[in-house]
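Quiz preparation item.
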């Protein structure tokens, strides 16, 4: 048996080694600069043009504000200068919405959240396009956004030769139509984001690429800005109405999907001293490598939307139902109208509606790594009439029949034993 004094000295040595390793990598944080003090608000209010896909979660930060303003109020206008201006706030500085309870098609007031000075819009819809202004309760505006939410009219997978020829012919037709004009007022094009990383590792995954509609013209409104003064998204208010883009199909975006497969990165192993200390304290590798677990209960026969915690629009997100991957090439929204389970362009998993068979564990991946496990439970509401074909009804009926059969068997066994005992028992002579 180890001497207690020797055991204590070993523990102190491990703690000292670990503290030295931690101190060697620790650096005192520098004083953070106040970004609001270093960035002045523009004297003339302009709007940053930002385009997104439908069902994405949008984050709009308020990049500037006066030093005396300790809270901000966000305002929404469909058209600039419209008298119909809505304040997206509870006038207490924040308004928090549970994103797991946000459905599709709800009012904007039920799908936003203000955290610090940023505005979050959950599952943005095309009707949410417009002007978002950061200001105060008095109506003083500091910063503005021109948000254009575009709907994906086409989801493209690896093209065949016929598709390539059709796309090349369409591009040539558009070029010919533009060449017939001496001085075109505008040019419409699709700007693609870079291909995302593979959304899974170690198994076959998928990559996505978002393509948004943009307009290039010298006649855009100067109050709206993008990376170039001559470029704006197709649904932006900077585009003159006489271009007629609102009556055409130019405002559609597209989403590209292709297969990929990458190996998982090697797992980092701690130093021997740290490993010995972790084992002594009771920590193991399996517990350290687990993902966060979230529990969600939902009523049966009602729509359900699951979001991956921590996912952003530019992230690559994937879903697994237990050990079965849910690929976009099979479960993308719009591929099959009869599908009850599908993934939208904002990386949300939809159930239309949720049934008892949907109970179980769902895993979501972010940037090629497993990010969370969602354990879904589906329950019946009070007063709901159960059918005999329901899984829970069949389970209850099976238990009742098993109990009845067991009790019947015990009763028959007791009767047989009693009858046998009376038969073989020797008769007692009567005196």
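Solution:
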């Amino acid at each position: 048996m180890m001497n207690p004094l020797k055991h204590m000295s070993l523990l102190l040595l491990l703690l000292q080694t670990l503290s030295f390793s931690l101190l060697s990598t620790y650096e005192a944080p520098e004083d953070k600069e106040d970004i609001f003090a270093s960035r002045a608000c523009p004297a003339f209010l302009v709007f940053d043009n930002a385009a997104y896909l439908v069902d994405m979660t949008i984050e709009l930060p308020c990049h500037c504000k006066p030093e005396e303003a300790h809270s901000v109020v966000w305002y929404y206008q469909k058209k600039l200068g419209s008298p119909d201006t809505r304040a997206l706030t509870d006038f207490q500085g924040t308004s928090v919405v549970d994103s797991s309870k946000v459905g599709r098609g709800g009012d904007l007031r039920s799908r936003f959240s203000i955290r610090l000075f940023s505005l979050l819009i959950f599952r943005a819809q095309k009707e949410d396009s417009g002007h978002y202004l950061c200001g105060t309760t008095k109506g003083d505006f500091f910063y503005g956004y021109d948000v254009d939410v575009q709907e994906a009219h086409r989801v493209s997978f690896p093209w065949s030769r016929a598709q390539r020829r059709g796309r090349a012919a369409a591009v040539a037709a558009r070029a010919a139509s533009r060449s017939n004009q001496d001085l075109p007022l505008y040019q419409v094009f699709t700007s693609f984001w870079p291909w995302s990383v593979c959304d899974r590792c170690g198994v076959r995954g998928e990559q996505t690429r978002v393509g948004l509609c943009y307009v290039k013209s010298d006649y855009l409104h100067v109050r709206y800005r993008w990376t170039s003064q001559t470029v704006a998204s197709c649904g932006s208010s900077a585009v003159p109405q006489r271009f007629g883009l609102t009556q055409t199909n130019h405002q559609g975006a597209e989403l590209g999907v292709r297969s990929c497969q990458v190996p998982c990165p090697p797992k980092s192993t701690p130093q021997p001293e740290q490993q010995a200390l972790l084992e002594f304290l009771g920590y193991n590798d399996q517990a350290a490598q687990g993902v966060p677990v979230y529990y969600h209960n939902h009523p049966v026969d009602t729509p359900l939307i699951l979001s991956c915690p921590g996912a952003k629009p530019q992230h690559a997100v994937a879903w697994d139902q237990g050990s079965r991957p849910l690929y976009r090439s099979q479960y993308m929204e719009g591929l099959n109208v009869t599908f009850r389970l599908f993934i939208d362009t904002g990386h949300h998993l939809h159930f239309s509606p949720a049934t008892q068979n949907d109970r179980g564990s769902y895993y979501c991946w972010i940037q090629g790594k497993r990010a969370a496990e969602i354990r879904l439970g589906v329950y019946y509401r009070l007063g709901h009439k159960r059918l005999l074909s329901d899984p829970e009804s069949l389970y209850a009926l099976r238990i009742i029949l098993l109990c009845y059969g067991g009790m019947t068997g015990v009763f028959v066994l007791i009767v047989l034993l009693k009858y046998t005992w009376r038969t073989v028992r020797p008769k007692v002579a009567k005196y």
